[in-house]
Amino acid sequence: MLDGSDLRVTRPRRLVWEVLAAEPGHLTAAEIADRVHQKDSSINVSSVYRTLATFAERRLVRESRLGSDDVSYWETAHADHVIHLVCSSCNAVVHHDSDSASMLRREVFTAHKFVSAHVEVTVTGLCINCTV
Ligand SMILES: [Zn+2]
Ligand SMILES: [Zn+2]
Fold it and tell me: Model pTM?
């Protein structure tokens, strides 16, 4: 995906992308920086943050607030209709394919003529492991 974009592929960009592509879940910038640092200790945290911002501008990655904490979680981009179910006990995050995002887009357009850019749906609660 990185090669298909018009972005110049630098070593930090390559390594940040590798870390994100290898992780099925969601990582904080600090966790990404840690993993990049294990691959190449010369890449510092600020270049990881810069790289994430660049990827976000190009919509190669998705940034979500998943917890009650004010921390961003990162992953390779996925569509708005894939929403996040966040367990408030074990912090597990489940991806759920839902019509809710497209319904919301239609609703707000009908009601307010508001054209949505980004829809973020997060459902908090208890996952299956925490309810049994
Ligand atoms: Zn849980
Ligand atoms: Zn996600």
Answer: 0.84
The total domain count for the chain is 2
3-state helix, strand, coil in the chain (%, to 5): 40, 20, 40
Q: Is the dihedral of CA 65, 82, 127, 25 positive or negative?
A: negative
Name the closest ligand to CA 86: 1
Ligand closest to 94 (CA) is: 2
60 plus 96 within the same structural domain:
no
Encode the chain (132 residues) as per-residue pLDDT tens digits.
677 777 888 999 999 999 999 998 999 999 999 999 999 999 999 999 999 999 999 999 999 988 777 899 999 999 889 999 999 999 899 999 999 999 999 999 999 999 998 898 999 999 999 997
Q: How far is the CA of 106 from the centre of ligand 2 (A)?
A: 22
